[in-house]
Amino acid sequence: ETGVTQTPRHLVMGMTNKKSLKCEQHLGHNAMYWYKQSAKKPLELMFVYSLEERVENNSVPSRFSPECPNSSHLFLHLHTLQPEDSALYLCASSQDWTETQYFGPGTRLLVL
Amino acid sequence: DAKTTQPPSMDCAEGRAANLPCNHSTISGNEYVYWYRQIHSQGPQYIIHGLKNNETNEMASLIITEDRKSSTLILPHATLRDTAVYYCIVTNNAGNMLTFGGGTRLMVKP
Predict the structure, then answer these.
(1) In A, which residues are within 8 Å of B46 by CB distance?
(2) Predicted pLDDT of residue A32
(3) Is A1 a residue whose pLDDT tops 70?
(4) DSSP character string of chain B
(5) I need a labelling partner for A38 at 20 to 30 A (CA). Which of A55, A88, A104, A109 fits?
(6) Residue of B nearest to A9 (CA)
């Protein structure tokens, strides 16, 4: 599935750094999602955007800040992360927020 | 959303059919059964979904029992590239909140 792309694919950052993850979907979808997958744990939904409005925030710490400037792009801004935030961060999109979700390849994040 | 129960792991010989079971005994009438798979360190890949009727696409078949309390994903001719973790998810599509459990780790062997 090449409809959802994520950059970078790998990222190493220090706890004082600020970085951003980018997701882009080429499917004409109106809803986008961020998930976190830690080692040996199930995927956890972080944020949901529908028509560029945030509709769900699953009690995510404020050091994760999402941004959805348009229906094709979704960012996750990271600042002052902790080592336990190291994980695979996955983006997904769907036609609307009741339809099937399609995932990107993920960004593997390591916080030192 | 209803919870699902899947065996943690299964083996399948290459070229044979892989039948992956899922129990969802608390499923409600408006909830769909979705299947995704995740190959190591990649994003989950959508496979198939259904409500009541059996479904088939180019990847797999989904068989849902008449009482809807369980389902089986069938990969008709498993290949080595089908080795992955397979997730069975039940959702009512309201907000399409996918809750991923532990899944079944399918190992396809030569």
Answers:
(1) 1, 100-103
(2) 94
(3) no
(4) ----B--SEEEEETTS-EEEEEE-TT--TT-EEEEEEE-TTS--EEEEEESSS-EE-SS-EEEE-TTSSEEEEEESS--GGG-EEEEEEEE--STT-------EEEEEE-
(5) A55
(6) B42
